[in-house]
Amino acid sequence: MTRRELLALLALSPLAARRALAFGDAAKLVFAQLVHGGRYEPREHALRRLCWELEARTSIEAVPEAVFFPPDDPRLFYHPFLYLAGEGPFPPFSEAQARALRRFLVFGGFLLCDSADGSSGFDEAVRREVGRALPESPLARVPASHVLYKSFYLIDHQGGRQIVRPYLEGAQVGNRLAVVYSQNDLGGAWARDDRGEWEFDVVPGGEAQREQAFRLGVNLAMYATCLDYKDDQVHLPFILKRRR
User: Fold this and answer.
1) Is the pTM of this model over 0.90?
2) Which of 40, 182, 73 is nearest to 123 (CA)?
3) For strand 169-173 and strand 176-182, is the pairing parallel, antiparallel, or unpaired?
4) CA 40, 122, 92 angle in degrees (round to 5)?
5) Partner residues linked to 85 by β-bridges
6) Contact, 238 vs 74, CB < 8 A?
7) Which portions of the chain are predicted below pLDDT 70?
8) Mind spelling out the 3-state secondary structure of the chain?
9) What pLDDT is recorded for position 5?
10) What span, in angstroms and rounded, lies between the C-alpha atoms of 152 and 226?
């Protein structure tokens, strides 16, 4: 079953019909955040601000409040973009949860892992769980030529609250990036409180680095919802001209 066939099947299911109380909301992107046994929401306002930026910059309409699920909740399949954040280690998922996360990824889901502190504890936990879900595709550096870096903005620098690694890592299902992992605290750069103040300083690059974090967030949302349409040959002359 392809990703498009899966989404079409879900749209026609009775459960989807019961949940679609308002067509406008059903057509919007809703981020799902993964619940685990550690600190799973270290940047409370991060996704809300990213939603605001998505609507301001693109044609994507997004619901500002994320929904929270454990890995084995079947409602995950209604959300193409899953966000796993953390600060420090978290305990292993159960066997049932690991199998469910694998199904989500194999059937077309996208997972962004975002380290709030760049710690070895969170890093080890992410590699452990991604390795369990996709043992055939360990995390590896995403090449600078990947379509992810041109799905909306042309990106050649990393963003985040801090730059622990000047690159992203990813795990593939076939030719598709199913998992992307940033150790640079994207959520810390996105987070803005109820008074409109940025919650964290961005170092060492300041506001330019924060802007890169938002551009990367927009690209990630575009990739998760549209995949690799910009890798089509018809786009290459325009992209190469822009790069020059």
Assistant:
1) no
2) 182
3) antiparallel
4) 75
5) 114
6) no
7) 1-26, 227-244
8) CCHHHHHHHHHHCHHHHHHCCCHHHHCCECCEEECCCCCCCCCCCHHHHHHHHHHHHCCCCECCCCEEECCCCHHHHHCCEEEEEECCCCCCCCHHHHHHHHHHHHCCCEEEEEECCCCHHHHHHHHHHHHHHCCCCCCEECCCCCHHHHCCCCCCCCCCCCCCCCCCEEEEECCEEEEEEECCCHHHHHCECCCCCECCCCCCCHHHHHHHHHHHHHHHHHHHHHCCHHHCHHHHHHHHHHHC
9) 52
10) 11
pLDDT in tens, 99-148: 999 999 999 999 999 999 998 999 999 999 999 999 999 999 999 999 99
Distance CA 239, CA 231 (A): 10
Whole-angstrom Cα distance, residue 165 to residue 118? 9
Q: Sign of the CA dihedral 27, 80, 21, 56?
A: negative
* Residue 191 dihedral angles phi and psi, to the nearest 5°: -65, 130
* Amino acid 226: pLDDT: 82
Query: Which residue type, as a one-letter code, is found at position 221?
Result: A
Task: State the Cα–Cα distance between residues 15 and 20, nearest whole angstrom.
Answer: 9
137: which 2 tokens?
């595709």
Q: What's phi and psi for 129, nearest 5 deg?
A: -75, -35
Give the pLDDT confidence score for residue 25 in this predicted structure.
Answer: 64
What pLDDT does 170 receive? 98
